[in-house]
């Protein structure tokens, strides 16, 4: 039996040292030390031994078990180290290889202009409001003094969401006037930039989606002079102090009186060219004194308060500023164009 144990010790140690991976090592552990392993089998026969032999053999058996256990742990550690060394080598990063440059992006020209405009208005004490693009006809039209049957509500011009014409994609940012007057305390000084939608064919000056920036001021004693001063300040801050503007009478249902602001053509300085369609002026925005009906519809006392409002076409502002002659360039996302700003 002693001989058998020595044999097991010798064979097992050799096998363990030769094991090439952890699976092989585990197989060896089972086949020697497991419940049905060779060493266990020998130990099971201890009962047949004489009383003198038993402790001697027992001691040897324990030694063999410890030796095998130790050898297995040692080999496992060795295999682990080898595997780690292999992985480190395989996954090594050469920090001296030049990196792939990440191209830094930049702002879209429309965002640049919007941020500048926001800056100017915040400087004049305005705050920024935002509202839904899917809007109620109630806000987009009715409460802006544009009753049922008004040509602006035509299905040919507006993207209606519901068959009954009660929900639509807002055609202007003006509904934000009503939303602001409904929810914010007076005095009121807000701008509300955002997308608007109209059923227009795409060409050099039209797009079914574009951006407006609405403005609204309601306070005691507001007059047309405040309107003119505010908008002239904006134009001169954005386009330089030499910019020439003119206010032209116009009609909007929700303002009275109403006007449009034109800026002298940047291309021809008023001489007339392709950009200004030979007019010498480019229309930039609509504005006016908020109609008493609109104020009263929001529960504002027109004996005490008055206000002015304006709606700016952001694309037009951007085109004017960067001398862009085709609106489509703003939306096509051609990097050759965008990279210029
Ligand atoms: N909402 C008008 C449009 O889309 C622009 C406009 C005109 C806005 C006059 C105003 C305003 O606030 O007072 O054509």
Describe the structure.
By secondary structure, this protein is α+β, with helices and mostly antiparallel strands. The chain folds into two domains: 2-90; 109-338, Bira Bifunctional Protein, Domain 2 (BirA Bifunctional Protein, domain 2), CATH 3.30.930. 42% of the residues lie in helices and 20% in strands. It has twelve helices and nine strands. The chain has helices at residues 2-18, 22-33, 38-44, 53-90, 109-123, 137-140, 175-183, 224-239, 292-297, 314-322, 328-332, 335-338, and strands spanning 127-128, 134-136, 167-169, 188-197, 209-220, 245-252, 255-264, 281-290, 305-313. The protein has a seven-stranded mixed beta sheet, with helices on both faces. A hairpin with a 2-residue loop joins strand 6 (245-252) and strand 7 (255-264). Helix 2 packs antiparallel against helix 4 (53-90). The protein is elongated, with a radius of gyration of 42 Å. The mean pLDDT is 92. Bound molecules: 3,4-dihydroxyphenylalanine (DAH). 3,4-dihydroxyphenylalanine (DAH) binds next to strand 7, strand 8 and strand 9.
């Amino acid at each position: 039996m002693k001989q058998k144990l020595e044999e097991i010790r010798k064979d097992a140690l050799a096998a363990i040292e030769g094991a090439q991976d952890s699976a092989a090592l585990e197989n060896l552990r089972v086949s020697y030390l497991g419940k049905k392993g060779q060493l266990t089998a020998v130990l099971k026969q201890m009962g047949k031994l004489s009383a003198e032999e038993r402790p001697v053999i027992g001691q040897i058996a324990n030694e063999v078990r410890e030796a095998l256990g130790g050898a297995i742990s040692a080999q496992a550690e060795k295999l682990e180290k080898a595997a780690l060394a292999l992985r480190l080598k395989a996954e090594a990063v050469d920090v001296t290889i030049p990196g792939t440059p990440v191209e830094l992006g930049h702002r879209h020209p429309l965002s640049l202009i919007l941020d500048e405009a926001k800056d100017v208005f915040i400087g004049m004490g305005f705050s920024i409001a935002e509202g839904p693009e899917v809007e109620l006809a109630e806000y987009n039209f009715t409460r802006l003094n544009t009753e049922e049957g008004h040509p602006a509500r035509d299905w040919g011009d507006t993207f209606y969401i519901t068959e009954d014409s009660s929900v639509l994609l807002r055609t202007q940012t003006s509904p934000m006037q009503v939303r602001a007057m409904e929810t914010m305390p007076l005095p009121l000084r807000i701008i509300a930039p955002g997308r608007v939608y109209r059923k227009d064919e795409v060409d050099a000056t039209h797009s079914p989606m574009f951006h407006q920036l609405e403005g609204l001021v309601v306070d005691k004693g507001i007059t047309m002079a405040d309107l003119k001063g505010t908008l002239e300040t904006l134009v001169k801050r954005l386009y330089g102090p030499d910019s020439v503007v003119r206010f032209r009478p116009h009609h909007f249902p929700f303002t009275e009186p109403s006007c449009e602001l034109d800026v002298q053509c940047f291309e021809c300085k008023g001489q007339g060219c392709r950009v200004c369609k030979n007019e010498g002026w480019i229309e930039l925005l609509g504005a006016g004194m908020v109609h008493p009906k609109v104020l009263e519809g929001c529960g504002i006392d027109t004996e005490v308060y008055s206000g002015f409002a304006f709606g700016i076409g952001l694309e037009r502002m951007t085109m004017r500023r960067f001398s862009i002659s085709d609106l489509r360039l703003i939306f096509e996302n051609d990097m050759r164009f965008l990279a210029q700003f």
